[in-house]
């Protein structure tokens, strides 16, 4: 899941629905992601990205993704 494309999607894709609709995925509150974890993540790519986002936040790695919002490139 820690692929270049997924990191860029977390930094640039916006939440399509709900209380935080329009907010970039990496900027979603951890509590909101924990709620999805308990209730069930949406199916498909969005759910996978939200689960990845939560894992990064739990490990304190979300700050690594945030600079990508500003157009910085990801290097492996």
From TrEMBL:
It comes from the Bacteria. InterPro entries: QSregVF_b. Pfam families: QSregVF_b. This is DNA polymerase III subunit epsilon.
């Amino acid at each position: 899941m820690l692929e270049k494309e997924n990191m860029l999607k977390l930094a640039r894709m916006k939440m399509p629905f709900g209380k935080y609709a329009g907010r970039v995925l990496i900027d979603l509150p951890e509590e909101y992601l924990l709620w999805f974890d308990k209730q069930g993540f949406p199916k498909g790519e969005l759910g996978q990205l939200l689960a990845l986002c939560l894992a990064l936040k739990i490990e304190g790695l979300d700050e690594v993704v945030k600079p990508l919002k500003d157009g910085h490139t990801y290097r492996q």
